[in-house]
Please model this.
Amino acid sequence: MTSETVKRSIYLTLLSSLFPVPLMAQEPDFIHDVVPILKKHCAECHTAGKHKGGFTMNTREELMKENDDGFVLIPGDASNSLLVDLITTDDEDLRMPPKGKGLVDKEVAVISAWINAGAKWDPTFTFEKKTYEPPLAPRRPELPAAKKGREHPIDRILDAHLTKEKSSASSPIDDEGFVRRIHLDIVGLLPTREVTESFVADPSPDKRAKIIASLLANNEAYTGHWLTFWNDLLRNDYAGTGYIDGGRKQISQWLYKSLLENKPYNRFAAELIAPVKGSEGFAHGIKWRGEVSAGQTVPIQYAQSVGQTFLGINLKCASCHDSFTDRWKLTDSYGLAAAFSNEKIEIARCDKPTGKIAEPYWLFPELGKIDASKPVNERLAQVAKLTTMPQNGRFSRTIVNRLWHRLMGRGIVHPVDAMGSEPWNADLLDHLATYLVDNGYDLKKTIAHITSSHAYQSQSQVLASDDESKWKYTGPRSKRMTAEQFVDAIWQITGTTPAKADFAPPSPIQQVRASLMKSNLLMRSLGRPNREQIVTSRPNDLTTLEAMDLNNGGILTQLLEKGAQHLLAKNNNDSKLIANDIFLQALSRKPTAEEAQIIRQTLGEKPDPSTVQDLLWSILVLPEFQLVR
Model:
């Protein structure tokens, strides 16, 4: 080990004692903690086309590239990262930055903690000057010529896209795969074995269109599934911060009824932005107890929630200072917040009062203005109108992008909350947005439009790399079941669906769903959020906690114990019937000859509850079960 490496190691050890919170306990926030340091000390020489020292840091990918001196940064290993070496060395000829006093100890601690935590980088951020500005007005793209048998507008657009990219579309998915996928995507439930067998045996050429229509017509099942999506997006839940002390209010009854009735999306959004009876909880957010930062006040939460949910705009950065990631300014956030507030709001920059009072302001003044002289309820009605008007293409593009992401595994704009980013296919995005508006903002019709395409009904994409910058469209992307889908599936297979829900919908229900239940340990380990913040996409990676819970968690173990007894009784203790039942219900297929042989050897002639429980568990941990492919 070189003396310089030893010195660096000792230095970092000392830093960990001086600044234990950023180094050891909390992962620095990239935008608020790391970017300001990089801008202050590194940007002048290593961004915007400058490559001093042979490297640049416009993007994470560029920063990670190897140069003549090796890798500048090693995620997870600050002590062996050249970047840390350069900012901590005592050698004035090597130290970076070469001018000034260099980084102070606290800044080094933040950079080191960031690297040790994996050097995560906000995918919407780049030091490069942004040249793309999305259009605001709606745009109706001209559809390319159709290939024979592929007349669907989505397929026409994507076929032209794939031809341009010199790529080819995925092969069609088989009936077993389709019936499982479409059930999980539209109603969030596994198809019963009877439905699967009947669908596969049906020779009708229009059977896929029929099952899409049938599932969308099942209003209760549709609502029970999409409630999860909207609870995440509108940060609504049945328990948690603020519900006990009155600082937060549910919108559950209003939301359930709106989904059940398939309320047009423009009216749905308008009733959340300018609250009606039952929907107030969204606009009012969470009234935090005790002292809060300027960015956590109720009016600022309103601005952030409206911007993120309906327009795909991140106003959280711009609630503290002018945004580092896009064009939004501090005055934009406070202007929208002022429309919601009865009181005058003083603008605070980085929690420090500026002495300036915010005036009600609409983010896209070319569409109209908010009349500051009007009372709050009228101002909010103006915000609702400006947000949902057909001329606001950002509104329609944002929701169809969310639906595409939910159904196809990746947004047309990625990430879904960065609608200022360039879409990988603008024609597809605009086609879906105009389709939504043309059809009266009917979300079900838009879902049907997507799922009826060959694009949706093709085999899921196999990723060649985890690097999102290298992603190219060739077909749908596999998605992990949500926690609620997983629990609903377990209940279905094991016959253990609860008799009563924690949340009672406004109309009687035939089946209790996990989306109607308070979160438990199993659902939390499977990724169900606490919903104190808006969540637009859940983690797609297996966590250590989830692996532990799936292996020996008490809740799952109890469900599988009951399920084994249920399956034995249901199938008359017959090993073959039990195996077929589990496979058809869980995977929408029968076991292969090899699988059947293994199962016979495992279960024996007279299966007992413990062996059936083991079989159940072995199926439920398969990627084939946990993924919507």
Remarks:
- Confidence is low (pLDDT under 50) at residues 17-25.
